[in-house]
Design goal:
The complex is a heterodimer.
Chain A lengths: L1 H4 L2 H10 L3 E6 L2 E6 L2 E8 L1 H25 L4 H4 L5 H4 L22 E8 L5 E7 L7 H13 L1 H6 L8 H12 L4 E5 L8 H11 L2 E3 L4 E4 L2 E5 L5 E9 L3 H4 L15 H6 L4 E3 L5 H4 L7 H9 L6 E2 L2 E2 L4 H9 L4 E5 L8 E3 L5 H13 L4 E5 L6 E5 L2 E5 L1 E9 L3 E3 L4 E4 L15 E7 L6
Parallel strand pairs in A: 3-22, 5-12, 6-7, 6-10, 10-11
Antiparallel strand pairs in A: 1-2, 4-5, 4-19, 8-9, 9-10, 13-16, 14-15, 14-16, 17-18, 19-20, 19-21, 21-22
Helix pairs in contact in A: 2-6, 3-13
Chain B lengths: L5 H33 L4 H9 L8 H10 L7 H13 L2 H4 L1 H18 L5 H22 L3 H21 L4 H17 L6 H12 L5 H11 L3
The chains are: A alpha+beta, B mainly alpha.
C-alpha cells in the first residue's frame, strides 16, 4: 500500500483533470471546488465487511418495509411500536403518497447508510439516508485513478472491485423500469453533486435530463427530443428532492421539477428512484425506532447498532438529555450535510440556555446522542500521517435483491478538532477498500 | 443516433462554436503578442479592430493581462473557454469524461499561463494542444455521429463567420464554406437550403460582400 502513498499529488491531479468537484453556495454564490482526496484508504477485512453487509441488508430491508407500511396499513403505528403523533409530525411524511405502491414495492432503491467505527471497533449507524444519498461516484473514480497511478498496489492487495457501482445502479433501474428509457433527473449544472449526476449518467448509459427535457402526457412521462418526437421514460433516478419534484403536487414554485410526474408514478407508468415520501424513514428522529422496526418486521435482532439516542419527545429522554447535556451531541432532525449538529459541551452558557428553551418548545425537532469517539483514520499531510475523524457512507441498492456495494465513501474531517466530515464543511474523502478474501 | 433534447443539441452546437472561437482567439493573440515583443507596442489596437472587439485596454500590458484572462469581459479568451466548458460539462454523459478532461485541462493551462507572464505563450500553446486533443478524442472516443456532427457544425459556422469578419482571402472562405456545407449535409439539423444557394455564389465572386454573407450565415441555422 505504501507505493500508493507516493502518488497523493498525482491522484489529486488526475481527479482535477476529470473535474471531480462538488459545489457549495457561499453568500448565495455557487462555488465549485475540488473534493480533496487522501490516498490512505479505509480498509475493511473480508469477514468484517460480511458482517456489515448482513447488518446493512437487514436494516434497509426493514426500512423499506416500514415505508411500505407507513404509506399503507400503518400497522407499526396501530400496534404502538412507533408513536402516531411522532411519526406523522415528520416533515418527511407525505400524505400524497398514502396508498401509492411503487414498482416492485421498493421505496428506497439507493440507500446511503452512514456509519462510524468506535475506538473499540464497534460499528454504529449514525444516519439512514433514503432520499437522495450522494457520494458513490467519488470512490468509484478515485479507485480507477489510484489503479492508474500505482498498479502494483492493486496487484498486491486482493480487493473487491468497486468499479461495478454503475452496473449495480443500472440493473436496479432496469429491474423497476416500467417500460422506456432510464433517466437521471438532475436539478442542473449548479447543483452541489452535479459531477456525480453526470458521471453516473455516463457510466449507467442513462439519459441525463433536466425537468425541461421531460413532459407528462396522459399520465405517462416522456423525454422530449429536439425534433418533436417523444420517448417514453420507464425509470427516473431523480436527484431532486421531493419538494421540487412536481410543482402540481409539492412546491408549486418549483422550476426544476416535472409537472405531472407524481401522477405518472402513482399510476405505475414510471418508477421513481427513490420513491417520494422516504423522508419519513430518514428523519433523524425515526432513526431511533429502526431497531424496533427490525424486531417488528423481521423478527430479528438488529445486527448493526444505533448510536445511543434520546428523543426529547419522550419525557424520560428529555430528563436524561437535560441531565447529561454536556456529554451529548444534539441534532436537528430536519437538517443534513453536517448542519444543525451541536455539541452540548461546546456551547456558551447563554447559547445553552437558549438551546434548552428551544428543545423544550420543540421537542420533536431534536435528538440527543451519546458522542461516539470514532476510530481515527490517518491522512497524509505533507508526507506526514495525521489522525482524523472519519465516517463511512455505505451504499445499499435494492431491486429484486438487496445488495451492498463492496466499497463506500469514507469522509474525513480535515480539522483535527472536528467531528464534522461533510464535504460541504470542508471535509475530504478516501477510498474504502474491502478485502476480497478472508485472511488465512 | 443518440437521443437529444433541443437543449442538448444547443449545448453541442454552441460547444463547437466556443471551442473554435477559443482556438482562433488563442492563435491570433499569440501572433499579435509575438509582434509586440519587439515591435510596435500598440499593435494590440489593430487586433481589436480586426477582430471587432471593443478596445477597452489602457496599453499593451493591460491588453496582455486582460484579454486572455478577464472573466468579466465576454470577449476574453477565458470567457470563451468558460462558455465552451459550460456547454460541455452538461454533456459529460455524451462526450465522456476522457474527452471532457481535455477541456478541463485547457482551463488549467490558462490559469497556469496567467500566473507567469514569461510562460504565457507556453501556457497558451499547451491550451491549443489540449483543444486539439479534445477534437482528436471526440473523433476517436465518441461513437455517436450526431454528437460529433453537431459540434463540428458549430465549429464550421464559427470558423466561416470569423473568416468573413477578418475578410480572409477568397480561397480561405471557399475552403471553409465547403467544410461547412459538407457538415450540413451530414447534419440532421434543419437548415435553409435557399440561403445555402445564395451564400455559395457570393463567396465565389471576386469581390465578396462580407457583411451580407455574414448576415445570411447568421440566418442559416436556428439553434
Amino acid at each position: 500500500m505504501d507505493g500508493l502513498f507516493k502518488h497523493q499529488a498525482e491522484v489529486n491531479t488526475l481527479l482535477a483533470r476529470y473535474g471531480v468537484r462538488f459545489g457549495i453556495y457561499q453568500d448565495k454564490k455557487f462555488i465549485e471546488q475540488l473534493f480533496p482526496f487522501d490516498v490512505i484508504p479505509r480498509t475493511i477485512a473480508h469477514d468484517e465487511f460480511a458482517q456489515l453487509e448482513r447488518g446493512l441488508i437487514q436494516r434497509v430491508t426493514a426500512l423499506n418495509l416500514f415505508l411500505a407500511d407507513m404509506y399503507s396499513d400503518k400497522r407499526i403505528v396501530r400496534e404502538g411500536i412507533v408513536p402516531e403523533e411522532f411519526v406523522f409530525s415528520s416533515s418527511g411524511y407525505l400524505p400524497q403518497c398514502d396508498g401509492v405502491l411503487p414498482a416492485q414495492g421498493i421505496y428506497s432503491h439507493i440507500s446511503g447508510i452512514d456509519l462510524v467505527q468506535s475506538e473499540d471497533g464497534t460499528w454504529y449507524v449514525l444516519e439512514d439516508n433514503l432520499r437522495i444519498p450522494s457520494g458513490a461516484s467519488y470512490p468509484m473514480i478515485a479507485r480507477e485513478l489510484c489503479r492508474r497511478c500505482s498498479p502494483s498496489t492493486f496487484n498486491h492487495n486482493q480487493l473487491a472491485d468497486n468499479r461495478d457501482y454503475a452496473k449495480l445502479l443500472q440493473v436496479t433501474m432496469h429491474q423497476v423500469n416500467r417500460g422506456g428509457l432510464n433517466v437521471i433527473l438532475t436539478p442542473g449544472r449548479y447543483n452541489a453533486a452535479y459531477f456525480e449526476h453526470s458521471y453516473l449518467a455516463e457510466n449507467t448509459e442513462a439519459l441525463l435530463a433536466t425537468g425541461n427535457d421531460l413532459i407528462v402526457e396522459n399520465d405517462t412521462l416522456y423525454y422530449k427530443e429536439y425534433n418533436g418526437k417523444k420517448r417514453q421514460v420507464g425509470a427516473v433516478y431523480r436527484r431532486i428532492s421531493d419538494d421540487y419534484l412536481d410543482p402540481l403536487i409539492f412546491s408549486s414554485d418549483s422550476l426544476i421539477g416535472v409537472p405531472g410526474i407524481f401522477q405518472a408514478y402513482k399510476k405505475g407508468n414510471v418508477a421513481l428512484l427513490n420513491a417520494p415520501g422516504n423522508g419519513i424513514a430518514d428523519d433523524k428522529g425515526t432513526y431511533y425506532f429502526v431497531p424496533r422496526m427490525i424486531h417488528f418486521y423481521l423478527n430479528e435482532e438488529p445486527i448493526l447498532q444505533n448510536a445511543p439516542t434520546y428523543l426529547p419527545f419522550y419525557p424520560q429522554d428529555m430528563r436524561y438529555i437535560l441531565a447529561h447535556f454536556d456529554d451529548l451531541v444534539l441534532k436537528d432532525v430536519a437538517e443534513a450535510g453536517g448542519y444543525g449538529v451541536v455539541f452540548g459541551r461546546s456551547m456558551s452558557k447563554e447559547r445553552k440556555e437558549a438551546f434548552i428553551q428551544l428543545l423544550k418548545n420543540e421537542p420533536r425537532r431534536f435528538i440527543g446522542q451519546e458522542i461516539i469517539y470514532f476510530r481515527d483514520l490517518d491522512i497524509l499531510d505533507n508526507e506526514q500521517r495525521l489522525p482524523r475523524k472519519a465516517d463511512l457512507r455505505a451504499f445499499v441498492l435494492t431491486g429484486k435483491t438487496v445488495q451492498v456495494w463492496k466499497s463506500g465513501l469514507t469522509r474525513f474531517s480535515r480539522d483535527q478538532e472536528s467531528f464534522i466530515v461533510n464535504s460541504s464543511q470542508g471535509g475530504g474523502f478516501k477510498d474504502t477498500w474491502v478485502y476480497s478474501q478472508a485472511k488465512k | 443516433m443518440g437521443i437529444f433534447s433541443s437543449e442538448k443539441i444547443s449545448n453541442l452546437y454552441w460547444l463547437g462554436r466556443y471551442l473554435d472561437r477559443t482556438q482562433s482567439a488563442l492563435k491570433l493573440f499569440m501572433d499579435y503578442f509575438d509582434l509586440m515583443i519587439d515591435g510596435d507596442k500598440n499593435t494590440y489596437r489593430t487586433f481589436c479592430q480586426t477582430t471587432g472587439i471593443p478596445d477597452v485596454y489602457a496599453d499593451k500590458a493591460d491588453f496582455i493581462h486582460q484579454y486572455p484572462f478577464d472573466t468579466t469581459n465576454p470577449h476574453s479568451v477565458i470567457s470563451n473557454v468558460n462558455r465552451a466548458f459550460d456547454n460541455a460539462v452538461v454533456m459529460r454523459d455524451t462526450l465522456g469524461s476522457d474527452t471532457l478532461a481535455y477541456l478541463q485541462m485547457v482551463l488549467y493551462d490558462l490559469r497556469s499561463a496567467e500566473s507567469n507572464e514569461e510562460r504565457l505563450m507556453i501556457g497558451m500553446q499547451n491550451a491549443i494542444d489540449h483543444l486539439l486533443a479534445f477534437w482528436g478524442c471526440l473523433d476517436d472516443m465518441v461513437d455517436d455521429e450526431a454528437t460529433r456532427n453537431t459540434i463540428k457544425l458549430g465549429k464550421q459556422v464559427e470558423h466561416l463567420e470569423l473568416d468573413l469578419r477578418l475578410k480572409r482571402p477568397r480561397s480561405c472562405l471557399q475552403r471553409d464554406y465547403k467544410r461547412l456545407e459538407n457538415r450540413l449535409l451530414h447534419s440532421f439539423l434543419p437548415y435553409d437550403q435557399a440561403l445555402i444557394d445564395t451564400i455559395e455564389p457570393m463567396l465565389l465572386q471576386d469581390s465578396v460582400d462580407h457583411e451580407n454573407a455574414l448576415m445570411l450565415l447568421h440566418q442559416l441555422l436556428v439553434v
